[in-house]
Specification:
single chain, mainly beta, four-stranded antiparallel sheet
Length: 350
């Protein structure tokens, strides 16, 4: 009965990162990392309690460095990576494990900082069973393989001369395929052949800040950035985007597909707005023929969330419910929102 209501949680420091605990498909659990320049940052493990419409802080963990990125394991709810800023030129990249007792601290079980001191982001392959990772560096990225028991890591491949790397995503449909954004360009990679297989030049007129892969439809991705546009691409037809959305008035820092219903797409911006779109025309969902409701047959803006007062840097759909999403703004405000119930039921009945 709380589906139409927002709920939020405030932290004492600025924040940029939020990620759902992907391996936990029974609870709305999220990790939020703070972004203080001082060495007193924190990771907050938060749970949204749907019955009471409340956010509960399960635990707070010390994390000295400013949290640049959080990357939960796609399968194991107890494991996650963080990248932290030690200085302007040095970072720490660690693999953490939650204790079985929730009140106890997290344990660092792997530190790869000796092998890379400039990692900004980590991407954990959701398809490959060999636990591949990608880390973004200052001028390129590396493909890693975690050893048995998560006790070691090898460095089989490095891809350099890629300036302004901003975001990336694994292909959930084909093993060892990856998409990256650097500058205004998009690139696709095959790690089987260790080569770039496609290059979309000037995909945006300004720096691309976020990309995501359609979870249900192969070869389709979404991108967004400083030009204030959300663009959709079919990687087999790279000459032109297949859909463009406008409406934000400042940089779009984050965009992501719903994990279950790919017609639902989020975008969050420096204009302090979160926009929930329905893009049914290019989704895997069939167009509804019997229901004449325009919002189910046509692309539309489903909801504009204006809960935040500062830049929205990151968003994440819940791992256990298709209709719940979390957002974080720079002032440390974490908010939970929902797909409107009326729209939810139209999708379910389609």
């Amino acid at each position: 009965m709380f589906d139409a209501q927002s709920v939020d949680y405030g932290m004492k420091f600025n924040a940029r990162c939020v990620e759902a605990i992907l391996g936990d498909q029974e609870r709305h659990r999220f990790l939020v990392g703070t972004a203080s320049p001082r060495k007193d940052n924190e990771l907050h493990l938060l749970e949204f309690m749907e019955d009471t419409n409340e956010i509960q802080c399960i635990n707070t963990f010390k994390h000295d460095e400013e949290v640049l990125d959080i990357c939960p394991s796609p399968n194991n709810p107890s494991l996650f990576f963080t990248c932290g800023a030690v200085s302007r030129t040095e970072t720490m990249t660690r693999l953490w494990k939650f204790s079985e007792v929730e009140s106890e601290p997290i344990e660092c079980i792997l530190d790869i900082s000796e092998q890379t001191t400039t990692s900004k982001k980590v991407f954990w392959d959701p398809v490959c069973t060999d636990d591949h990772l990608i880390t973004f560096e200052n001028s390129g990225f590396r493909l890693w393989k975690i050893g048995e028991g998560f006790t070691s890591i090898s460095d089989p491949a490095e891809f350099s001369d890629l300036t302004k790397l901003s975001d990336g995503c694994w292909d959930p449909h084909h093993p060892s395929q990856f998409v990256s954004s650097n500058g205004n360009d998009l690139r696709t990679w095959s790690f089987i052949n260790k080569e770039c297989t496609n290059h979309i030049k000037n995909a945006h007129s300004d720096l691309i800040l976020s990309i995501d892969y359609n979870p249900n439809k192969p070869y389709q991705i979404v991108s967004a950035g400083r030009d204030r546009f959300v663009k959709f691409w079919d990687l087999r037809k790279p000459d032109e985007s297949i859909k463009i959305l406008s409406g934000h008035t400042h940089w779009i820092w984050s965009t992501c597909y719903n994990r279950f219903h790919d017609q639902l797409v989020l975008s969050g911006s420096s204009d302090c707005e979160v926009r929930l779109w329905s893009i049914v025309s290019i989704s895997s969902a069939p167009l509804q023929e019997l229901d004449e409701t325009p919002t189910m047959k046509e692309d539309c803006l489903v909801r504009c969330v204006k809960d935040h007062e500062e830049t929205i840097y990151n968003m994440s759909w819940s791992a256990c419910d298709a209709w719940v999403f979390a957002t974080i703004s720079y002032d440390g405000r974490f908010a939970i929102n929902h797909v409107p119930p009326s729209f939810k039921y139209k999708i379910l009945l389609n």
